[in-house]
């Protein structure tokens, strides 16, 4: 880290395993990343790369039988991996807010948005009266740009449009002023015309409150507009991380180059995709050495033998031997 | 909301008309009531007079309209068997059946709901597996077998609970209740258990399935991510979303219980409507059968309408539906 600011989130060598009948699957392998307060880290990668899994591991919401098999997760200097369920209930919502993909189904249809907001507020800020919680709920709705919040607070989720519901979800995630927000594809389910508004809102609020954000998305446009840094995942590993301009414009890892080339340039009409040959390996069939080597045009014998760790590049890090002694 | 209620009530009225038509048809198909009501010695003049008095000379439609009009006022005519007012006969028996059904319903909810929740949230534990297994037995045992077994154990062998009758009852206006005396309450125990056993298992299995389904939903996952404690998620977020099917099942089952109480009533010699109906069938007492049909249908339709309205109260999305 070049910067002296202390990290908000620190993930060190995180390993997540799923024990199963046919042996143990390593879903996340040696993930190391950190996010500073007020910083937005975009996380990209093919479907199944482990983006959501990373978020779930941080939130302590891994589905059984998944478990953290190694590494550390710290929030503002405090270890949070391995905390019990009770202790994690105080971390989730209070210190880490979450936003999921589908705003249509994230809210309980049987309770007013006000009730759900108050519930979250009163859960995390003990001693808040009903009236105070309600006033705070109205304030939050105002903050996320819901018109006539005084009235809307008593409405049910089905009375809101998709975009408005996602704003409510953001209000819920922010309700207790968490230090970190994990947003897992927050705009994927939304109409294209609303996507920019929602990510813009997320960015604005997090900058205002100095909240760190882990933003999982498939949309490089969103990354370009919203993120400060980008992390690229592949087959349960982190293969590149760096400032957004560098990763988008001059990616260091061959996989990232392929990924960027497969995305049409902004404004370009022709959609010729320079897709990478082959497919991401299944988790139980990851090749030796660099996980990407069978698909990599630059791979050499070393890539098939040894697995590269993250290696410093010009401005970031990439897990590729090109940056440390070559592929031979 | 008002439009919604009015619409449901109109629906209900239509269904009742259809049922009353069926009940009316029973009269038509059952042969000539004059034959059944008159004795060997009655003259042709007597018979004609009776025919005229019963309005049997009018055409079909006029007779049907008259039947509906009378039925709507609670007038179902006179029993062929003992010449008493049919409505009075049913009113005598109605409280016995209703009390039995009420207790059975409350029992099934009181036992079925917690068991369903328990087996859902403690899925995979040995006791939840045992309960699951036991519930299959509960579903497949016929209620008369359960009734006879209960009588064998608690009345014949142990001799602690009565095997038949209602015990002492107290009259409250036209309603006779067994709730106020010890023997009345004791008498309720075995029949209500045997009537409710099937419902208990049904509700338990339904609640379990619904709970598991809801626990997988996105809003439950999101509630977990908001740091809402488990017990609150189970009992507030999940349970409330399970209640709709439970309400439907319970209400529908009250209807079914009334209809099927006649088996339990026969086993326990319970003086309810079911017993009355069985007697009516053996004597081909058409007015009683028709009235029983109409009243059971009315209860069904009433419950159905209540269910629809309850839905709207539980689920805000239905309130605005046109
Ligand atoms: N219960 C499980 N047992 C074994 N492996 C699992 C289990 N659940 C998920 N995985 C694996 O973990 C990997 C990571 O999944 P994850 O949901 O994090 O992908 P993702 O990067 O979020 O993809 P997407 O872009 O499609 O959301 C997947 O390859 C998946 O097969
Ligand atoms: Mg995902």
TrEMBL record, chain A:
Coiled coil: none annotated. It is found in: Cell inner membrane. Transmembrane segments: none annotated. Residues 9-260 form the ABC transporter domain. Pfam families: ABC_tran, oligo_HPY. SUPFAM superfamilies: P-loop containing nucleoside triphosphate hydrolases. It is a peripheral membrane protein. InterPro entries: AAA+_ATPase, ABC_Ni/Peptide_Import, ABC_transporter-like_ATP-bd, ABC_transporter-like_CS, Oligopep_ABC_C, P-loop_NTPase. Gene3D superfamilies: P-loop containing nucleotide triphosphate hydrolases. Keywords: ATP-binding, Cell membrane, Membrane, Nucleotide-binding, Transport. The keyword Nucleotide-binding applies. GO terms for molecular function: ATP binding. Belongs to the ABC transporter superfamily. NCBIfam families: oligo_HPY (TIGR01727). PANTHER family: DIPEPTIDE TRANSPORT ATP-BINDING PROTEIN DPPD, OLIGOPEPTIDE TRANSPORT ATP-BINDING PROTEIN APPD. This is ABC transporter ATP-binding protein.
TrEMBL record, chain B:
It is a multi-pass membrane protein. The chain crosses the membrane at residues 12-30, 100-121, 133-164, 184-207, 242-264, 276-303. It is found in: Cell membrane. Coiled coil: none annotated. InterPro entries: BPD_transp_1_N, MetI-like, MetI-like_sf. Keywords: Cell membrane, Membrane, Transmembrane, Transmembrane helix, Transport. SUPFAM superfamilies: MetI-like. CDD domains: TM_PBP2. Residues 94-307 form the ABC transmembrane type-1 domain. It comes from the Bacteria. Belongs to the binding-protein-dependent transport system permease family. This is ABC transporter permease.
